[in-house]
Automatic annotation (TrEMBL):
Record-linked Gene3D superfamilies: P-loop containing nucleotide triphosphate hydrolases (3.40.50.300), Tetratricopeptide repeat domain (1.25.40.10)
UniProt key word Transmembrane: yes
Protein's UniProt name: Serine/threonine-protein kinase PknK
Domain MalT-like winged helix, chain residue ranges per copy: 287-368
Domain Orc1-like AAA ATPase, first and last residues per copy: 54-185
Amino acid sequence: MAAVLGSYLTIIGFTLAILSPVLIAALISGFHAYTDWRRADLPRQGILDRLGSGPRPKLVLIHAPGGYGKSTVAKQWVKTLTKQKVKTAWLAIDSDDNNAVWFLTHLIKAVRATLPELADTLQQEFEGHLENVQQHVLYALLHGLHSDKQTLALVIDDWHLVDNSETMNALAYLIENGCHHLHLVVTSRTRSGLPLDGLAAQGELTEIDESLLKFDIDESRALLVKRRGLKLTPANVAELEESTGGRAAALQLASLSLRDQADPAALIENLSGRHDAHEAIDDYLASNVLNSLEPDLLDFLMSTCVTNQICSGLATALTNNHNSQGLLEEIEKRNLFLRRIDAKGSWFQYHDLFAEYLLHRLERDAVDRIPGLRRRAAQWFIEHQMLSQAVDQLLLAGDARQAVDAVEQAAGDLHEQNKMHTLIGLAAKLPAQYAEVRPRLQADLAWANVALSRSAGVLEALRLAENAVDSVPSDQAGDLRAELDLLVAILAAFQDRVHPFADVAVQACVDRADTLRPWILCRAADLASFCALRVWDFDDALRWQKWAGPFHQKTSGALSVTYGHCLAAIAANERLDVAGAEAHLRQGIRIALLPSGRPTYIAKLAGSLLGQLLYERGQLDEAEALLDDAYELGAEGGIVDIMFATFGTGARLKMARGDKPAADRRIAEGLEIAAAARLPRLEARLIYERVRLAAMSTDEIDEGLAARVMGQSAQALDGIGYETAELREDSQVRLLLRDGSHSALSAACERARAQLRHVDQGKRPRAHLGATLQLALCLSTAGETDEARRVLAPALRTCAALGFSRLLIDEGPQLLRLAQDTAATEEFSSSDPASQCVRDFVSSTAASNMAASLKVSTV
């Protein structure tokens, strides 16, 4: 039997349905976490009194087998809490929630129905992280409720459908870490999958089990006689209560069976004489109900029970009946276990037990119809972009190859929409023997894993794709091979390496620009720009992004487009085109924001680079917000050039705020990432920052660190990249300055001169500026003041023109004093605008640094 997806709730003693927002970390959002309880139900006052006595616990667990009315009790408790002005949300579990990412998606939708601003925050966390999404979203939920002093009652209905450990861990996290602002109500057929140990002892658990849920004789009489209007004697009611076990669903089936019975006593006697299990009694009652229906209506019911939810369009596709909406409303009106499940009232769901009965009848009477019905449903779901349901229906129909086709055909759009988790989740549903031999699908999965920084996933998908590439038609094989080669080279770029055949891979894509997907060509341009940056050909890096412009226009998603803007900004900044860099970054952020205005993952990466640029110009407030956002990404923080900003510049900013512990933490965490991912360039930059911070403070430099830095010989610098070697050289120069001896200062000056000679000003203007400032600092520290001024003067003009105040401040008070002395020399004494600009710049920089120092010292 097909697994029953969905959840039920018993209303007026019978079960009705609720469905969670279907699908997807997110293809389409047609449903809402919606609980519109229109019919008055029979109050379970005894249970409500039990729940309302004493403080609200962290967890209310309502557990019993199917048909006991668990969801009705949860619904009534929600009503009670709503009257007490408590915000409530309802999350109905379905099988997709066994993917933790989709569970989070459904959770966010449930929260949105009652706390939209908090849901925006959760969505930001969801979109803004590639790994550890669960931790970020759940922490944001608990923190948001606590900081706003907002109580939320969250119902999680049909928890027994979950068997995934990650989803179980998510709920356990909420239970164990939540405070009194989160009140969880869980309905389930079992007690499993929940961290119950210790909760009861702490007074944080209230359990409602089947002994409390079953209807007693008085409640059965109230339902059957008072609510249903059946003419039954007290003895009849007692017999029904005993034979049904007081289960709400069975009592409702009995009431439907008795409604048109001329002799109710005969049916009651038949039930009373049975010694079958509850399921057999339910089957007997359901058969009575179904047998009493008109044939056309029964056929409609059986045809529409194969999906977990139904609307008029889907029902028409399944039945060819164009009066489907009218029939659905008639079924609802006749209390045949059908319930509206969305705010607009256009989607319905059968009670899960009743859906089982209908499917049993269909399997018994017309089993050959089922595959065709499922294929029709799948086609309708595909046409309406509800891919998860489509895949489920195709697999149930035995059409595994068609299910693979459906995912494969949607993969490109999912990439453009940056829905990598969704693609991987959909692929996980597919039988491995069919999915693993589809090179096109495996290539798309490799792309998804690249975006999620999952190297192992990339390599496995590439292996499978390469194994099966010969199965691709010859007219498509060239494109696919070019794509696979590009993937290999891009993976190397994320590992901060230039693949030996990167240029060949890029050119192969350029040669196929007429047939490759636009976003792949954007990725090819990004790789080419990355390679150009590594050889300091910044014009070429920008040229590639200009080449990609037409393909950006044809790409609907922001990921590859904004990455292109990031790479262009890095190139522009290295050329000292600061305005151009800022324009690229602000455009990249703008197109990557969520509708709420909050940043996505790629927007945070661009924000890190923008934060660095703003920091260097002294705009610390905006810079701090951007760098803090990027810092939350941790190891997911993009290519090394972006992590330079997040961890290196981020540490400088925290130090500028007087928060040395935060600066130290950033450097330490960045170094951990560099070690784990084997990123020597990042390690070298952050060691330099650690040495620089120590040199500028009164702290002693760790002797072990100093020894390791100074022990890196020329041989050790070979083979790890010239930029890495430069950074290590900078660290050694800083340590020599810290030493302060005559020989150390002489060595520092000589090495700084050599560094400046090796940096081509025309090719690397930004690096030349940095090397110039370093040499000026060395000369000034060594007492060679006149030469220091001559060296600094042109750099001072550049810094003044671009507003680079922090470049002077971050070199320490020695350089700032030298800048003041230099600005007062004859070279800058004239009244021309350029000289006046330098004098004003140095004066304002010194004044702002003094003010900031005083502010920090008083904190």
